[in-house]
Amino acid sequence: MADVRPNASENASEITTGPISGSRKVFHSTGSGLRVPFRRIELTNGEHLDVYDTSGPYTDETATVDVHSGLHRVRAGWTDGREHRTQLAWARAGVITREMEFVATREGLSPEFVREEVASGRAVIPANRCHPESEPMVIGKNFLVKVNANIGSSAVTSSVEEEVEKMVWATRWGADTVMDLSTGKRIHETRERILRNSPVPVGTVPIYQALEEVGGDPAELSWEVYRDTVVEQCEQGVDYMTVHAGVLLRYVPLTAQRVTGIVSRGGSIMAAWCLAHHRENFLYTHFSELCEILRDYDVTFSLGDGLRPGSIADANDRAQFAELETLGELTRIAREHDVQVMVEGPGHVPMHLIAENVRREEELCGEAPFYTLGPLTTDIAPAYDHITSGIGAAVIAQAGTAMLCYVTPKEHLGLPDRDDVKTGVITYKIAAHAADLAKGHPRAQERDDALSRARFEFRWTDQFRLSLDPDTARAFHDETLPAEPAKTAHFCSMCGPKFCSMKITQDIRELAEERGLTTVEAIEAGMREKSEEFARTGGEIYLPLAD
Amino acid sequence: MADVRPNASENASEITTGPISGSRKVFHSTGSGLRVPFRRIELTNGEHLDVYDTSGPYTDETATVDVHSGLHRVRAGWTDGREHRTQLAWARAGVITREMEFVATREGLSPEFVREEVASGRAVIPANRCHPESEPMVIGKNFLVKVNANIGSSAVTSSVEEEVEKMVWATRWGADTVMDLSTGKRIHETRERILRNSPVPVGTVPIYQALEEVGGDPAELSWEVYRDTVVEQCEQGVDYMTVHAGVLLRYVPLTAQRVTGIVSRGGSIMAAWCLAHHRENFLYTHFSELCEILRDYDVTFSLGDGLRPGSIADANDRAQFAELETLGELTRIAREHDVQVMVEGPGHVPMHLIAENVRREEELCGEAPFYTLGPLTTDIAPAYDHITSGIGAAVIAQAGTAMLCYVTPKEHLGLPDRDDVKTGVITYKIAAHAADLAKGHPRAQERDDALSRARFEFRWTDQFRLSLDPDTARAFHDETLPAEPAKTAHFCSMCGPKFCSMKITQDIRELAEERGLTTVEAIEAGMREKSEEFARTGGEIYLPLAD
Questions:
Q1: What are the Cα distances from residue A336, in Å, to A115, A121, A139, A147, A239?
Q2: Which residue among A412, A472, A547 sits closest to B383, beta carbon to beta carbon?
Q3: I need a surface site. Which of A49, A99, A403, B319 has the fewest CB within 10 A?
Q4: What residue numbers bound the domain in which A279 lies?
């Protein structure tokens, strides 16, 4: 790939490095001494909060990054001296792997709990043994909800370097995995560069490359071409693959009366192949052989929902649920081969029909981690589909979805740029976190409480540092109050520089602590004092704008 | 107000007029001949869709707008020859008023149904007889979910003209009501200008002006000052007023151990007054007198939740629900006086605690329309709180909230500008519409289906026109495919200019229609034909970016 290497200066200008403002990289040790990365948010009151970190060495000031040589291989040697087995096989054998130990520390849970979840198939650890650069993570409904960001060049648009930077940029803001959906030329090389530089698992849809191999004509596709493509991608280190093996010939007619027909790329390709040959989907008929290939590398299946609804009108219809039954059958076959499995979900679904998708998937697919695209809860807001789908993502994650595939503001309209990627990731981190709170994840609320305390105590800088996007939060605040003293002032631009509502509560609390009174007694005393203080000082209350 | 009138040219440059792109104003006649405005979206296939319209004459090309003389008084004479009674009194008396008839046509429901909902107190029609410029609208859980936008100048910031334009701008994008939260100087004059030019009901929080009257010291507030302020605002034409009469002296101690104390402006002012005098809230002790004043103008109560939670940690706590019980008591008193009532709700609430807020409000307040601020479902995303709260707004609206108070990206950080207002309104229209779909409002899905059909048939221009924000949707599309022919091309920038998945379904359907075959037969025939066609043409399928 020497011919495509940018020179050092180009590279320096292309890849975003350095810590997120107000944070620094720290490492927690596991029982056996593995170093697990966290992002430490330093607060002005001397406290700190360590949060889950997906950004890899790019945010580590002590690390040197060179996209040409690739990332340090954190998992190098982890599998030495142990036979090639999948995480599922080890978990079933009662063995806690280093990957399980690593993710246990990341999630703040016990290694044995992780092993049990993986053994049951309720969780997966996508970690191809040929992708040692990736930091292990776990996907399952009893862990933190994860977010995937799609990247990938298309024939006409972005360069290899741009795609690597998109991956770095997406993981900087919290993407837990990325999918390389590249099409067109340089597809192998783009994927190679992304894999060697990605600290997170990388997913692909092999049918796209297979289609390129046969010149873009679905009718020319064959099991042999597809198989060779999958082996190539396994060797490169792809961690999970979307396979549309559930699009059966007899299901295609069920889409004929839909408002928006078939909207999945992979689904449409396989439907086209079935129509062209009037034969059954070769991914379905060769599924066991596919399992044997993925098992050898511990590549995780992401069973694609090729017949997912593309509009509110088509949600939860026969075509969608017929395919889901087949995905359940394929899940069982994959597990018989010790291959880890996720199942993909919709799409476009109105709020009242969302929960049924999770319930059916859990029943039919043995609680395999559900991985959904949104869903969009209305069709009427193109240019805002990160929001129409962010609502659905939060609702479906609360119901049990394990990973959310982000949607950007450009969905349905065009190709996302750098800002769209950030907006999509942040929106989906919000949806995932809202669901973590609703599901009662043990440590999820720590960050909300830390930020709310900072807000109550007028520690503006800490509010920015604790937020998902410190740069934008600070910029919005500075539009009204740029001066540095404002960062510690006991007011906000909505209140003006005077006594405010929160202050009342603070005074009452301090009084209670001084006096060692029970709160209510303290309040009563406090209220009497306030009565005098008000009379004395003519204290004022100023008004925040929003009520 | 002559002294503050901008000249015509200033005015022309300040107020946004003209139809939304691809739409024009039309009027539907009611049984008795009232003209009800709708926005007609013209489609390129000759069809059209008439949608609910909040924008008033500003989007009517045939109307002349002069903010100095104010809007045409659409309700002038509606009450002539009928005694002054509230909509609630008329509804209870079995009378269908013109306001009820008007909103029935707006909502596509029967006038009698509207009367029943108003009579039961489940719905309100905020329509001060002194605000004849407003086009009647209804707020209730059995009608379309409504959205309020807060505007209002503060001491240092925007001018009267800017606030009028903010109102015009917010209603252009779909705000069903606006609240004027002005503080500081020119508060009367700002409100006067907004009222005379507002086609939607205007709400206020009278305690803000009352506080100005006493020089900003809550301790100096009194029932007499407040009463005179309320009468002044009733005379001006304010349609609904937020009254924090539920903040009782004994509830203030319950906020002492909260993470964020009291975060409502009105709540903090009344708490400060109670603390200063160690006496009961004068809004509570004089509530019946207040009812008599509001009844004379048919001003609707919006009972404020002064003790709402300001953080996830404080959600659904004793202070919040204690106040809600009192709001239930006040609701009963207001209804005894034939005064219409809404009840305000939180705030900051995690997803799993949202439904309980609606259930308790309906039980305690006799199903009075619930009017909530968000709620925000997490505290960790300042700069994105339109999204953290848009998620909560959709969930709480699905559960039965009748009106949503928008939150802009500047929440907690600064004062919203024009772009923030639009983003806030669009985000909340999405949340409201997602809930309308989930609640099965009879006509809600028409627009989704029309847009999805346009998408499936590659009518790009119609997709833009049917979207909540046609300008931004078109701009995003044009970034990749600016040329006009692209607006009718059978592809998008994600697919490339070739045969795509949706086309397969189209061909199958057309075949079925031509042949008059049952669909499945047609598919089978179609699949055979496709098989030949593929072989013949070597047809290709191109790949959209998102899968």
A1: 18, 11, 20, 28, 19
A2: A472
A3: A49
A4: 118-442
